[in-house]
Structures are given as C-alpha cells and as structure tokens.
Amino acid sequence: MSGSTPLGPIEIEVIRNALTAAAAEMDVTVWRTSRSTIVRELLDYSTAVFDAQGNNLAQSARIPGHLNSMSHLLRELLDRWVDPAAWGPDDVVITNDPYCGGQHLPDIVAFKPVEHEGRRIAFVGTLCHHIDVGGLAAGSYAAKAIEIFQEGLRIPPVKLIENGVRNEGIWAMIRQNVRKPDLLLGDLSSQIASLEVGAAALRRLATRYGAEGMIEAGARILDMSEAAIRASIRRMPDGVYEFTDWLDDDGIALDVPIRLHVRLEVRGDAITVDLSGCSGQSTGPVNATLASSVSAVMFAIMTACDEPFAANAGCYRPVTTIAPEGLVVNARFPAPVVHRVAVTHRLLNAMYGALHQAVPDRIPAAYYGNSYVCTFQTIPEEGPRGVLVEIEIGGAGAPPGKDGVNAFASGMHNNSNIPIEMIESGLPLTVTQYRLREGSGGPGMRRGGLGLVREWRIDSPRALFTANMDRFVHAPFGLAGGGAAATGRLTLIRDGVETPLPPKSDNVPLARGDRVRLETSGGGGFGEAARRDPALAARDVAMGYVRA
Fold first, then answer.
1. Is 506:375 a contact under the CB 8 Å cutoff?
2. How do residues 430-443 score in pLDDT, each as one tens digit?
3. Are 162 and 91 spatial neighbours (Cβ–Cβ below 8 Å)?
C-alpha cells in the first residue's frame, strides 16, 4: 500500500493489532531467553512499541508501573540526553537512572530505533527488573539507604551497542559492580534479543504500509485512545474529590507516617490531579520520581473508565498531574528511590479512594498496596554466594459486585510467583509454608481478598536477609462501610522462639535452621458487613476468610 494513500479504519485496526502483537513477541522472547528467577519466573519485565517521538503506541500485558512510565523515559532521553540525529538504527541505548527519567536502579531499560527506507518510524523498548545492581544489600533493595549512591550502579543513558557493535567497556563495567553478573548480563542479552524481534516485526509491517502509513497510523491510534478516555471522563460528574492514604514510615524516621493526598478535579472531558498535599521527600528510599507517580495516576484513571480503549500514550493527554519537586511523589536528586513502588501502590489506592466518590459503582476497596520485597543472600562455606529476590503480594480489595480475589497481583503489580521448586533446586533454602492467610481480608457486604503466608528456612551455614515492606501499621481501607484488612507481619523463628522483624531491615544475619515468615495484608471490604448474605457470612467464619 502506498504511503500516500489514506488509511481506512480497517487498516488502522490491523496495524494497531500488529503493533500489539510485536510487543507480545518481544515479551515472549524475554520470557524464553532470560536467566534470573525475578525475570523468568516472577515476570518482572515489560516490552512496548513507541512512535518516532517516543510516545507509547502498543504494549504487552505486563507491569502497569513500567508501561505507563517507559514513554516518559524515552521522551526524556530524546529531549535531554541522547541526540536523536546520532541515534542510529543499529544502536541500543540503556539506562537505569531515575534522575534521567527512569524509576529505580534495578530497572534497566533498553531502547532501539526502527527505520524504513532511511526514515525513523518507531522505537522498541524493554525493561527488566534485574536481580542485583550492587549497593548496600543483595538485590539492590536496601531499606536504609539515604542517598541514591548507596542503592547500586547508576547507569547514565549510554549506547550499549553502537553501529551493531557491543561496547565492551560498558558490559565490563556492569560485570564488575553487581553480585550476580552472569544472571544480569544474561537477562540484559535477553532484552537486546527482544528488541531485534520487535524491530523486525515493525520492518515487516512497514514494507506493506510504508513509512508514511506507519507514522499516520501511529498518530491516529493515539487520537482514538484519547477520544475514548475523554468520552469516559465526560460521563463522570464534574467536581473535586479528595482522599488520603498513608505509608507507615521511610525506614529511617520510624513511626513517622508519610501522607499521600490526592485532590482530583473532573471538568468536562479532562481531569487534573493535584498531589501538592503529599509529604515532602523522605530520607529513606520510599521516594518516587515523577515518572513513577504519574504512572500510578494514569493507571487509576484508565481502570476507572467505562469506554473500551487501547492502552497507549493517547490515554495520558486528558490528564494533568501537579506534583511540585521535592515531594515524596517527585523526589529531588540525590534522594534514594529504590522502594518507589511503595508510593505508587499507595498513591493508586488514594486515587481509588477519590474516584470512588465520583464513580462508586466501579471502584474497589484498597488492595494490599505494597510490594513485599525481601532478599536472601546465602553464604556457603566456599564458592559463590546465592541471591534470591522475592516480591510477594496480598489480597485484592473487594469491588462493588463481588468478593475480592485472594492472593492476587493487583494494581501496579502483574507479577507471578517464583515456584518453590525453582527456589529449592537453585539455592540452599526451603519454603516451609506457602498458603492463604486466614482472617486477613476486610469484612463487608463484599469480602476483601486474603493475603499470603510464606516462610523460608535457611539451609546454608550463613545468610543475610533484607526486607523493604510497608502496610504493617496502616491497613488497606474498606469502602462504602467495608472494613479494613489485616496489616502485615514479619517474624524470625530461631530455636523455636519467634521474634518480630522490622519490615524495613538490611542484612539481618541468619544461621542454618533459622526461618523467616512473612504474612501479607489482605484487601479491604466493600459495603457494610451487616448487609452480607448470612449464608456467606457463616461460610466466611467457618473457613477463616474473615476474623470472627
């Protein structure tokens, strides 16, 4: 088809689905070729296709927090850090720097341009959460870091591959600064392979529709999503809606809660989200960059819409986010940010609390609202140390029409679990418990989902344990009269004695036979418990779904 021939709606839909299929092909490539359990099993990675200006056109069904922020990062690179004219089709640029548009150091992002007949038509991108990038604690998730320099290797925007040739100095620099170099470099190679798979799919598409056709289709795909989001917002009642949720603390100033306040204004077909009422940035690593926070804002609004739409950068256009620099939602360099997902989870819950006031029939109660990140570094008598990064989840908040789902990767998550067999076959660890947590869901007309219990036993002579968690004080809230869920618990069991562990702990020494037990939060309930069907209420108590 000639690039000068206008594309009809059928061609636009064919191209849109082909772009999504390209992102999905990239997704499968990473899954099949990656090395670490955090990428291959937990599925903490994302893939996407962007237009020539860096706008997200299509994405795989992966992590919402990644996908809503990758476009922000790519545009930041093109505007400030990489000369677009000098970025060739055989160059791959990587970075993990939150202060160059990224999120946190474990997330290394790779981008590659795609050209057809000498004209740039797109970019392809992959993001992987890597098992370790150095820093104070294994897994690079230190709970006590007070500046980003303590969090690991900070990679500026740099060409990892230039004119098709590997920059061996960059590869060597990474290898020298991480705890599991073979796993990280294997996963990074997987990202590079994925980029070429996506680029090849786009080049095939361009041979049919031409460069002009691809560019026209991209612009119209974005416009269609914008129109759908605006139509949905237009059906929301105009008004100002506010809500506040809280982080427990930042791990440094203990027992000092951190405020996440949302002021959401709906006017016509647009929404303004003002985050100025959030706490100032923290000393500890719970801060978020603006890219992270806007990702949570957009996810909340997109999931609250009642109009079918394709998820892409066109969805972002009707939404304005106000977040002055220096807040916990828009941290200023060199603030530590590794646990930025604590803010994004909690900000999403606060957004839901505000949106519930506008569209109460489609907003669930609070989900567990936290990444329960914990890392084990096993230390043998001799030989290499092992590293396991676990990111546990909890219960989903109950929506208006049904009970919340038990142990469900909700909100900013879309993770799987790491199978017990994969852990025990590769590391001197034994998972001694893995089950639903009785009584952890919030009561209500609709019951909140249950959290999890997961317990690990140390089978090596020594180990170090690091935890970076929240929701141990401020419980996931209910809505419309529903009750709050249970808060989390973290326990060390040594010689039969149980001792509470702080949820933000670095490098806790462990010995053979020690066990660590994590109990995660459930989801909040929806509606008054007195309105629940009596038969369901009796079943809940009998099965331990809610606290009697």
1. no
2. 999 999 999 999 99
3. yes
pLDDT band with cut points at 50, 70 and 90 for residue 1: very low
pLDDT at 142 over 60: yes
Whose tokens are 């839909």? That residue is 13
Task: Give the C-alpha distances (Å, rounded to integers) separating 357 from 206, 304, 314, 343, 348.
Answer: 46, 12, 25, 22, 15
Residue at 48: amino acid letter: A
80: which 2 tokens? 């400030």
Distance, CA of 490 to CA of 520 (rounded, Å): 9
Q: What is the C-alpha to C-alpha distance for residues 260 and 257, in angstroms, rounded to an integer?
A: 10
pLDDT tens string 124-136? 999 999 999 999 9
- For 117: left if phi > 0, alpha if psi spans -120 to 50, otherwise beta; the answer is left
Written as six digits, the tokens of 106 are 């474990």
**281 token code pair:** 């940035």
Q: Are 467 and 373 in contact (CB under 8 A)?
A: yes
Q: How open is the CA angle 459-462-466, to the nearest 5 degrees?
A: 100
Please give the distance of CA 492 from its chain centroid, rounded to a whole number: 28
**Cα 365 from Cα 356, distance rounded (Å):** 9
Determine contact, residues 283/143, Cβ cutoff 8 Å.
no
Q: What is the pTM of this model?
A: 0.95
Would you list the DSSP string of 34-99?
Answer: --SHHHHTT--EEEEEE-TTS-EEEE-SS-HHHHHHHHHHHHHIIIIIS-GGG--TT-EEEE--GG
For residue 38, give both structure tokens. 């955090």
Q: Which of 55, 168, 53, 38 is nearest to 106 (CA)?
A: 38
Amino acid at 92: V
